[in-house]
Amino acid sequence: MGKDRLPAILLAIFAVFWVLVAINPYNRAVWVAENTLTILFIIFLITTYRKFRFSNTSYVLLFSFLVFHTIGSYYTYTNMPLFNLLQNMFDLSRNHYDRLVHFFFGLSFYFPVYEFGTRKLKLKGWGSYLLPFLVIISFKALYEIVEYLAVIVTHSSIIGTSFLGMQGDQWDAQKDIMFGITGAAISMVVCRLKK
Fold first, then answer.
1. For residue 180, which phi and psi values (nearest 5 degrees)?
2. What share of the chain is helix, strand, coil (3-state, %, to 5)?
3. In terms of Cα–Cα distance, which of 92, 98, 104, 62 is closest to 80?
4. One pLDDT digit (tens) per residue for the chain, 195 residues
């Protein structure tokens, strides 16, 4: 498989997967809300591909994250069946699928941001490791704010409970950010140890 063909293959696989799970999501309004940023992100990757190509590792990580996220949007995160089963088996207070995806966001987005920083911005030393970590923290906080504002703007209690996915946890946003930061911290250590 040629180096330049992998991103196109991943895009094609994701497009087929996305269309299939878009047919009958658990809640159409939540599906649209969750997938707006997904579509914008994919358009961004396509339009910037010729100007900056990430490594195949980064594309695989981004692809994997988008699959996890799309599954979450299909079930509205709070109703992911496997994690409902785990919730019942271990008598957990909530479905924790969203925590996994927030963790995976930090883990998977760190490497593309690192690549951009070292190759395009020519960062070296600790700055090259710290910048992606800080970008992930910023994105996580910004996403939680956007998520909250979307509920306020739509005035929708249906979108609110499913889109926010708080499940009765008043500290949900802070915990989501913490899981993203933890994923980014692990990637930062792995990236540093690789050198």
1. -65, -40
2. 75, 0, 25
3. 98
4. 455 899 999 999 999 999 999 999 998 888 988 899 899 999 999 999 999 999 999 999 999 999 999 999 999 888 888 887 887 888 878 888 899 999 999 999 999 999 999 999 999 999 999 999 999 999 999 988 887 787 777 665 555 555 455 555 677 788 889 999 999 999 999 999 986
Tokens of 191: 């990236």
- Single-letter amino acid, residue 45: L
- Read off the tokens for 24: 């009958």
- Count of residues in the chain: 195
The single residue listed with the structure tokens 């996403």 is 143
Q: How far apart are CA 99 and CA 111, in angstroms?
A: 20
